[in-house]
Write a structure and sequence with these properties.
By secondary structure, this protein is mainly beta. Helices cover 8% and strands 44% of the residues. About 4% of the residues have low confidence.
Length: 393
C-alpha cells in the first residue's frame, strides 16, 4: 500500500486522466496476458467488515482460521485521516467470521497510526506519522507458549507529507497472542536490513541481510506472508534491492524452527527474470497458502511504468515448501497453477493483488484487494473472489 498512497497523490491531480494513468503505458505480455484475457469480465463480492468505519477504505488482507475452521480472523490495513487526497494514517484492524467468510465483523484496531516526530540519525526532527501496513496473520499451533500461537507480522515505517515513506526508518515488527480478540504482546521490532532502520531506531532483533550473501545489499523488506507447517514457521517477503530507475523486487522465503525466535534463509523464490518470463516487470505482495494438501506462493504481477500497477494474483505451487522450490517447466519458468484477474469494471490506480487465502474461507474463497478510483475517497477496497486455488471437481 505504501506505493499506492504515493500513486493516489499523483493520480488525483488530474481527474480526467485517472483511468488513462491507471492502465499505464504498456500491458501484460506472454502467459499472464493470455490468462488475463481468458479470465474475462470477472465479478467479485466486496468485503465490508460490519461495524468498521471506512474512510479512505481498507486494503492488505490476511486471513487465518482456527484449525477446526469455526472462526476466521482477518487482519487488514485501514486508511484514515483528513490529509488530502487520502490518509495519512494506515492502521491495522481485525475482523472475525463464524460462517466461512460469508460475513465479517470488525473486532478492534490492533495498531493505530499517530502523528509523531522522527529524530533522524543526524539529529534533525521530521513531522509525520508512523504507519502500520501489509499485516500477515498466522496460527502457529505447536508453539509451546499457548499465549503466542497467533502471530502478526506488520511493516511499520515513517511517513511525512514530503516523502510518502522513509525506507531507512522502517522495519517488520511482530506481535503475538493466545486469542486474537484479547490482549496482544507489545510490538517487537523484528527484521531490519543492514544498517536500516537508522539510529536511533536501529533496535531490530534480526538483520535479514546477514542470513545469506544474496541479501547483503537489500534496502528494505516488506509484504510479509506467513504460514505454519509441521512445526516450521515460513515467511515470504519482498526484498527491495538497489537498481537504477527504481528498486529491484525479489520474493524470498525465510523460516523459523523455534516459533519466531531465530530465522534462516531458505531461498529466493521469484526474481525479475521470472517476472519477465511470465510477462510482467516484477512480482510483489506475496503470501503463502495451503489448499487441498498442496502449498502455494501467491504473488501479484506488477508493471512498472510511470506508476506501479499490480495485475491480479498468481498462485504458483511449491515442489518443496521446505526447500523453497517452486514448480517450473522445462524452460525453468515458474508454472502458474491459477490466476485471479482484477475485476475490469473497477480496475484502476495501482490495480489489484496482494491476496490472502485460507481453505476454511469456504464462502469467500481467495480474498483480493482492488484499488477503485471511481469510489473516491474510499479508494482502497477488498473483495472476496469466491474461488479456491485448487478447483474441486
Amino acid at each position: 500500500m505504501k506505493r499506492r498512497l504515493a500513486y493516489i497523490v499523483v493520480a488525483l491531480v488530474a481527474v480526467t486522466l485517472l483511468f488513462t494513468l491507471a492502465r499505464g503505458s504498456r500491458s501484460l505480455a506472454g502467459t499472464l496476458a493470455q490468462l488475463k484475457q481468458a479470465a474475462g469480465d470477472v465479478h467479485y463480492t466486496k468485503l465490508i467488515p460490519e461495524g468498521d468505519t471506512l474512510q479512505s477504505g481498507i486494503y492488505d488482507p490476511s486471513v487465518a482460521y482456527t484449525p477446526d475452521g469455526s472462526i476466521g480472523w482477518l487482519a487488514y490495513s485501514s486508511v484514515t485521516g483528513d490529509f488530502k487526497p487520502v490518509g495519512p494514517f494506515v492502521n491495522t484492524h481485525l475482523a472475525r467470521s463464524t460462517d466461512g467468510g460469508a460475513h465479517w465483523r470488525f473486532v478492534k484496531a490492533l495498531s493505530t497510526a499517530t502523528f509523531a516526530t522522527l529524530v533522524t540519525e543526524d539529529g534533525k526532527s521530521l513531522s509525520g506519522a508512523w504507519r502500520y501496513e501489509v499485516p500477515s496473520l498466522v496460527y502457529d499451533p505447536v508453539d509451546p507458549d499457548a499465549g503466542a500461537r497467533w502471530k502478526l507480522f506488520v511493516h511499520r515505517y515513517f511517513w511525512t507529507a514530503q516523502q510518502d515513506r522513509l525506507v531507512s526508518y522502517g522495519w517488520i515488527e511482530l506481535r503475538t497472542t493466545g486469542d486474537p480478540a484479547g490482549e496482544w504482546s507489545p510490538e517487537v521490532p523484528l527484521f531490519g536490513a543492514g544498517s536500516r532502520p537508522l539510529a536511533p531506531y536501529h533496535q531490530t532483533r534480526i538483520d535479514l541481510n546477514k542470513l545469506n550473501d544474496s541479501l547483503h545489499d537489500t534496502l528494505a523488506y516488506t509484504e510479509p506472508g506467513a504460514l505454519a507447517h509441521n512445526g516450521v514457521l515460513y515467511l515470504s517477503l519482498t526484498a527491495l534491492k538497489p537498481r537504477f530507475g527504481g528498486p529491484l523486487h525479489e520474493i524470498i522465503l525465510i523460516a523459523s524452527d523455534d516459533h519466531g525466535k531465530s530465522w534462516r534463509f531458505v531461498s529466493t523464490l521469484l526474481t525479475r527474470d521470472d517476472a519477465l518470463a511470465s510477462g510482467c516487470d516484477y512480482f510483489d505482495g506475496s503470501s503463502l497458502a495451503e489448499d487441498d494438501g498442496r502449498f502455494f506462493l501467491l504473488a501479484a504481477p506488477m508493471l512498472q511504468n510511470k506508476n506501479e500497477v499490480h495485475q491480479g494474483t498468481v498462485a504458483i505451487e511449491f515442489e518443496s515448501l521446505g526447500k523453497g522450490i517452486l514448480k517450473r517447466d522445462a524452460q525453468h519458468a515458474a508454472v502458474i497453477a491459477a490466476y485471479f484477474a482484477p475485476q475490469p469494471g473497477i480496475f484502476s490506480g495501482p490495480g489489484a493483488g496482494q491476496s490472502a487465502f485460507d481453505s476454511h474461507n469456504s464462502t469467500g474463497g481467495l480474498i483480493m484487494p482492488q484499488f477503485n478510483l471511481r469510489a473516491y475517497p474510499e479508494v482502497f477496497q477488498i473483495y472476496q473472489t469466491g474461488r479456491l486455488i485448487v478447483e474441486k471437481r
